[in-house]
Amino acid sequence: MALFSVGVNNGLLVRFAAYTGLRAGELTGLRVRDLNLAAGHVEVRQTLARIGGVWKISTPKSARSSRNVPLVDRALVKDLRAYLVAHPNSGDPEALLWPGRVSGSHLVAFDRVLDTGSVLRNYLRPAVEAEGLPQMRLHDLRHTFASLMLAAGFPPYEVSRWLGHAYLATTDSIYAHLYPSDYSAHVDRFSAFVAEAR
């Protein structure tokens, strides 16, 4: 059983969640093969959730939830590459990507399932509190991803697809307040289009 201190992987996991927008069950269900660094994306194909005390594999939430999410941060890709080199089961494509916490300790093991609630309680909330920031949920990292992508200028329909929303309207209803309000680039582009058509 490969063990690491709790902080070794949780910082990377939190960055990964904030830069991919995956749901908790999607993070838990990721296998080594789902991290396609050569193609520059993560493949969301299954979820893993505890139901009645038993971990169960399921399909993602909706048809659009089975998706490829781009890995847009080069530093994250570099760190994921190093993480895979150190992953004791990297040669097994079906192995879970993220380790789970050993009950009653601050150690993690790759033969255990990632418990995102434990990551939240034992890592994320204390880290956020230490920085004097307001409390957050793991799901807030999903909102972080969407907000960052929209602020970086990615079209809402792409962000919606990457989030795995069944409908663009879902993304629009949650994030419309983040859409650009400076329309000068649109005015310039339309004016050039009309001028060229004349």
Automatic annotation (TrEMBL):
<dbReference type="InterPro" id="IPR011010">
    <property type="entry name" value="DNA_brk_join_enz"/>
</dbReference>
<dbReference type="InterPro" id="IPR013762">
    <property type="entry name" value="Integrase-like_cat_sf"/>
</dbReference>
<dbReference type="GO" id="GO:0003677">
    <property type="term" value="F:DNA binding"/>
</dbReference>
<dbReference type="GO" id="GO:0006310">
    <property type="term" value="P:DNA recombination"/>
</dbReference>
<feature type="domain" description="Tyr recombinase">
    <location>
        <begin position="1"/>
        <end position="188"/>
    </location>
</feature>
<protein>
    <submittedName>
        <fullName>Integrase</fullName>
    </submittedName>
</protein>
<keyword id="KW-0233">DNA recombination</keyword>
<dbReference type="InterPro" id="IPR050090">
    <property type="entry name" value="Tyrosine_recombinase_XerCD"/>
</dbReference>
<dbReference type="InterPro" id="IPR002104">
    <property type="entry name" value="Integrase_catalytic"/>
</dbReference>
<dbReference type="Pfam" id="PF00589">
    <property type="entry name" value="Phage_integrase"/>
</dbReference>
<dbReference type="GO" id="GO:0015074">
    <property type="term" value="P:DNA integration"/>
</dbReference>
